[in-house]
């Protein structure tokens, strides 16, 4: 839960002037402790984040390399009406046959 400082100030302004400030220090200390705990959790999860990004990168490079290697084939004759042109839309729509 994130607390917006402007909302807190607005809530404080809406309170009557004779409001007791008992517990204000405790609320501030609790907020600081919660922030520290969030930072520790984020620091603990940093290696997992790095590992997941590295794994995603490795998978992408592998899949891209395999896709690139599968498109490399023997030189084909390119002519205007060639059906075997590997980049022609007609051959891309046909799929692997």
Automatic annotation (TrEMBL):
Domain of life: Bacteria
Protein name (record): Anti-sigma factor
Species whose genome carries this gene: Caulobacter vibrioides
